[in-house]
């Protein structure tokens, strides 16, 4: 077979040594060529020399062995299985509070905060660790025996008596599932309490075969039953106190809350990109029996992590816009698991709404919802097997976001470690301002100039004022994310991001400013409508008269829905155009970025000329293209 390869590799005559020429010209046996072939092949493919090492480090077949500390102890795994609102987390947390030491691993900052507060209120000192925040209850900064964290941040080397892994079904998530896998295999705790959908039981049990650990399953039933109604709501005139209308796009949220206001009712609004303080204050307003606001308009962000006194869940639609791998917008009918998670918010154990109800806004959607809710939740194994690229039950997580960030900063000279850390930043790539800020941070960092508080304030134009319209509000949400990015980086590069405390202070202030905006969201919507040029509706959405269009194809792992408002752009291979096409950059921002980039390039090129002959700089120049 190497003779075949030889045909592809045959060197041009001027690159051959005398020996090789001799070999080719005389009529020796073809095997005589082998050493020369190998020498040449290794010149072209230097990795041939380290194939064995490469094979070893790419052997991902037994992930359980990556966690020797956990393998050194015998762990007991307890699976708390049941639907939303069945008391799974509650029971696991009781055990966590009673233990000498414990770690809670949750999917959201909001949930980590909730457990942090619950634990400290119960007299069990507990620290908080998220990507952007470390709070130690001990004044001198010593670690407490208990810690509540976002799952990505849990330690797999610290020993605990009890560990709680919440929402285990997220182990199937294409982008974040790795963190649940790591926690499940790697946490060093005598007892691991896993909470989640029963659909994950078999999968977790099988995974534990590889570690030789048994799984005890405890089943839970809903504390508050919910029923699917036989009629749709059909009109916003039929709303009642305790109703929550669930939408899958922000524009639907805006338009519905405006229509509710026209009917003289007050509503609270919750969607994913709001800061945590704002979400909590909206939830509080809706839950407060004394507050006149008794209607909630929300996205599926309510599926996890917020306690809400909802009587009736009304699905405004059953399709969720997604962006597929090609950057095209696609509408997917929600899955049974998603529908159950949302429907499960109807009825709350400790509220006046003991029994929940679920229905749709549009009549034609109701039979579809009933059908979705009657299906069994996909068992998790199926998804793993179909995607498996490694061994049996595992697959390699999606690294699109990582690659996206790597593309964005590839022209910036950074050493490998810093570049890697930057690329793992958890940013929302759909927000143009966050992306441009990420670039600016990386550029400033590469110049070895610390990102001071003053610098950040200039960058985000602090101080900021309450939003006057929806565009302002969206921008403030993005600024909040940029400050999150700063805080996240500050834990990884303390000397380069030295002002985390100040940044945290203004981020809190910003959360309050956003809260003011969201409290008056219908006024912002009105202002946006009034300022729009005639004939356009800035809040136009996919409202329709008929039922949700049902897309036949479901794309796994597509990024979350988002309303780009940018359409009709030609597909182009350049990153900039792709960003615009995906709705991640506005054309204006792209132009501004191009201007900035060309300026920086010019400056850098000039720099290169000045220090020509310096190998390091040449290397940098080569990287840019
Ligand atoms: N035994 C209980 N006593 C008091 N409150 C409970 C009990 N079980 C659950 N709750 C409350 O009911 C709500 C839902 O419980 P939770 O554990 O969050 O459900 P799940 O994790 O199954 O979604 C929470 O507000 C929780 O505090
Ligand atoms: Mg729970």
Automatic annotation (TrEMBL):
<dbReference type="Pfam" id="PF12513">
    <property type="entry name" value="SUV3_C"/>
</dbReference>
<dbReference type="GO" id="GO:0000965">
    <property type="term" value="P:mitochondrial RNA 3'-end processing"/>
</dbReference>
<dbReference type="GO" id="GO:0005524">
    <property type="term" value="F:ATP binding"/>
</dbReference>
<feature type="compositionally biased region" description="Polar residues">
    <location>
        <begin position="528"/>
        <end position="543"/>
    </location>
</feature>
<dbReference type="InterPro" id="IPR001650">
    <property type="entry name" value="Helicase_C-like"/>
</dbReference>
<dbReference type="InterPro" id="IPR041453">
    <property type="entry name" value="Suv3_N"/>
</dbReference>
<keyword id="KW-0496">Mitochondrion</keyword>
<keyword id="KW-0809">Transit peptide</keyword>
<keyword id="KW-0067">ATP-binding</keyword>
<dbReference type="InterPro" id="IPR050699">
    <property type="entry name" value="RNA-DNA_Helicase"/>
</dbReference>
<feature type="domain" description="Helicase C-terminal">
    <location>
        <begin position="228"/>
        <end position="391"/>
    </location>
</feature>
<dbReference type="GO" id="GO:0016787">
    <property type="term" value="F:hydrolase activity"/>
</dbReference>
<dbReference type="InterPro" id="IPR027417">
    <property type="entry name" value="P-loop_NTPase"/>
</dbReference>
<dbReference type="GO" id="GO:0045025">
    <property type="term" value="C:mitochondrial degradosome"/>
</dbReference>
<dbReference type="InterPro" id="IPR022192">
    <property type="entry name" value="SUV3_C"/>
</dbReference>
<dbReference type="GO" id="GO:0003724">
    <property type="term" value="F:RNA helicase activity"/>
</dbReference>
<dbReference type="Pfam" id="PF18147">
    <property type="entry name" value="Suv3_C_1"/>
</dbReference>
<dbReference type="InterPro" id="IPR044774">
    <property type="entry name" value="Suv3_DEXQc"/>
</dbReference>
<keyword id="KW-0547">Nucleotide-binding</keyword>
<comment type="similarity">
    <text>Belongs to the helicase family.</text>
</comment>
<dbReference type="Pfam" id="PF00271">
    <property type="entry name" value="Helicase_C"/>
</dbReference>
<dbReference type="InterPro" id="IPR055206">
    <property type="entry name" value="DEXQc_SUV3"/>
</dbReference>
<protein>
    <recommendedName>
        <fullName>ATP-dependent RNA helicase SUPV3L1, mitochondrial</fullName>
        <ecNumber>3.6.4.13</ecNumber>
    </recommendedName>
</protein>
<feature type="region of interest" description="Disordered">
    <location>
        <begin position="598"/>
        <end position="625"/>
    </location>
</feature>
<keyword id="KW-0347">Helicase</keyword>
<feature type="compositionally biased region" description="Basic and acidic residues">
    <location>
        <begin position="598"/>
        <end position="608"/>
    </location>
</feature>
<dbReference type="Pfam" id="PF18114">
    <property type="entry name" value="Suv3_N"/>
</dbReference>
<dbReference type="InterPro" id="IPR041082">
    <property type="entry name" value="Suv3_C_1"/>
</dbReference>
<dbReference type="Pfam" id="PF22527">
    <property type="entry name" value="DEXQc_Suv3"/>
</dbReference>
<feature type="region of interest" description="Disordered">
    <location>
        <begin position="527"/>
        <end position="567"/>
    </location>
</feature>
<keyword id="KW-0378">Hydrolase</keyword>
């Amino acid at each position: 077979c190497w003779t075949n390869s030889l045909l592809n590799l045959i060197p041009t005559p001027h690159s051959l040594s005398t020996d090789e020429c001799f070999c080719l010209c005389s009529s020796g046996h073809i095997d005589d060529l082998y050493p020369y072939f190998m020498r040449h092949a290794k010149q072209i493919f230097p990795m041939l020399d380290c194939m064995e090492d490469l094979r070893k480090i790419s052997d991902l077949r037994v992930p359980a062995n990556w966690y020797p500390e956990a393998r050194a102890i015998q762990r007991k795994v307890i699976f708390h299985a049941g639907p939303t609102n069945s008391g799974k987390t509650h029971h696991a947390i009781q055990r966590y509070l009673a233990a000498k030491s414990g770690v809670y691993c949750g999917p959201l900052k909001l949930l980590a905060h909730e457990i942090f507060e619950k634990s400290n209120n119960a007299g069990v000192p507990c620290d908080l660790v998220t990507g952007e925040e470390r709070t130690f209850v001990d004044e001198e900064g010593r670690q407490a025996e208990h810690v509540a964290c976002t799952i990505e941040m849990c330690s797999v080397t610290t020993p605990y008596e009890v560990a709680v892994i919440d929402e285990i079904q997220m182990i199937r998530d294409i982008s974040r599932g790795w963190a649940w896998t790591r926690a499940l295999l790697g946490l060093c705790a005598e007892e691991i309490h896993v909470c989640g959908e029963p659909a994950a039981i078999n999968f977790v049990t099988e995974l534990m075969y590889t570690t030789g650990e048994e799984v005890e399953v405890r089943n839970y039933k809903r504390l508050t039953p919910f029923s699917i109604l036989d009629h749709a709501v059909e009109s916003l005139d039929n709303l009642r106190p305790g109703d929550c209308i669930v939408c899958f796009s922000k524009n639907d949220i805006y338009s519905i809350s405006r229509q509710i206001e026209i009917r003289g009712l007050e509503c609270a609004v919750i969607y994913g990109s709001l800061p945590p303080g704002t979400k909590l204050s909206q939830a509080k307003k809706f839950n407060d029996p004394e507050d006149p606001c008794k209607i909630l308009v929300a996205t599926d962000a309510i599926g996890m992590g917020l306690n809400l006194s909802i009587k009736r869940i009304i699905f405004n639609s059953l399709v969720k816009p997604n962006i597929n791998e090609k950057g095209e917008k696609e509408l997917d009918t929600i899955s049974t698991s998603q529908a159950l998670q949302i429907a499960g918010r109807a009825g709350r154990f400790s509220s006046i709404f003991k029994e929940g109800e679920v229905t749709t806004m549009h009549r034609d959607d109701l039979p579809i919802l009933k059908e979705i809710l009657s299906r069994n939740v996909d068992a998790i194994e199926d998804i793993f097997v179909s995607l498996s690229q490694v061994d049996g039950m595992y697959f390699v997580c999606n690294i699109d976001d990582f690659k996206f960030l790597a593309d964005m900063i590839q022209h910036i000279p950074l050493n490998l470690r810093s570049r890697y850390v930057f690329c793992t930043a958890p940013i929302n790539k759909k927000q143009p301002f966050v992306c441009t800020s990420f670039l600016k941070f990386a550029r400033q960092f590469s110049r070895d100039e610390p990102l001071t508080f003053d610098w950040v304030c200039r960058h985000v134009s602090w101080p900021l004022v309450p939003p006057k319209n929806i565009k302002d509000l969206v921008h403030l949400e993005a600024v909040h994310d940029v400050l999150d990015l700063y805080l996240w980086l500050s834990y990884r590069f303390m000397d380069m991001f030295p002002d985390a405390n100040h940044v945290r202070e203004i981020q809190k202030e910003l959360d309050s400013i956003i809260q003011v905006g969201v409290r008056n969201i219908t006024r912002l919507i009105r202002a946006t409508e009034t300022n729009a040029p005639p004939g356009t509706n800035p809040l136009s959405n996919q409202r329709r008269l008929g039922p949700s269009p049902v897309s036949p194809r479901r794309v796994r792992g597509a990024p979350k829905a988002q309303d780009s408002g940018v359409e009709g752009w030609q597909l182009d291979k350049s990153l900039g155009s792709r960003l615009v096409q995906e709705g991640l950059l506005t054309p204006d921002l792209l132009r501004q970025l191009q201007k900035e980039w060309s300026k920086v390039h010019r400056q850098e090129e000039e720099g290169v000329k000045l220090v020509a002959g310096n190998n390091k700089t040449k290397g940098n120049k080569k990287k840019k293209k």
